[in-house]
């Protein structure tokens, strides 16, 4: 099946996909700040430049998009019908890189909390943020 967009339209659409300061990231950051947590963003010194770094708690928070990180069992992760092989390679390489960064961070003594985009949709948001707060408070003790 051919793409319904022209190459120029497709290029524009893809250029609008952000890697930093996404809506899910902003939700988590705003929540953390309101709870009194202070953090760093995208620390280049750490493997994978984690989205949120809480140095005081030696914890990083990774906020993944369900599609680009291949969130299994998620309704937002649907393999495209066009250029399927290319997309699968891209998603699998993202997963591999995520795993490598996870191992490096763990070996360096960092705790990792991963939140997927779907967990921050309005229906699950409060529960997810409550769990996040609980995990961070356990680290604080």
Describe this structure as you would to a colleague.
The protein contains 4 helices and 4 strands. It starts with 6 loop residues before the first helix and ends with a helix. It is 45% helix and 12% strand. A 4-stranded mixed beta sheet has the order 1-2-3-4, with helices on both faces. It is globular, with a radius of gyration of 17 Å. It has 141 residues and is α+β, with helices and mostly antiparallel strands. The chain has one domain: VSR Endonuclease (Endonuclease, Chain A, 3-Layer(aba) Sandwich). May nick specific sequences that contain T:G mispairs resulting from m5C-deamination. This is Very short patch repair endonuclease. It is an enzyme of class 3 (hydrolase).
Q: Per DSSP, what share of the residues sits in E-state strands of 2 or more residues?
A: 5-15%
Q: Which CATH architecture is right?
A: 3-Layer(aba) Sandwich
The biggest beta sheet reads: 4 strands, mixed
Number of helices: 4
**Terminal residue distance:** 55 Å
* Rounded radius of gyration (Å): 17 Å
- Read across the widest sheet, the strand sequence of neighbours is 1-2-3-4
Mean pLDDT: 91
Beta strands, count: 4
User: How many structural units, i.e. domains?
Assistant: 1
Helices and strands, with pairings:
Elements: H1 7-15, H2 23-34, E1 40-41, E2 52-54, E3 59-64, H3 84-107, E4 111-116, H4 122-140
Parallel strand pairs: 3-4
Antiparallel strand pairs: 1-2, 2-3
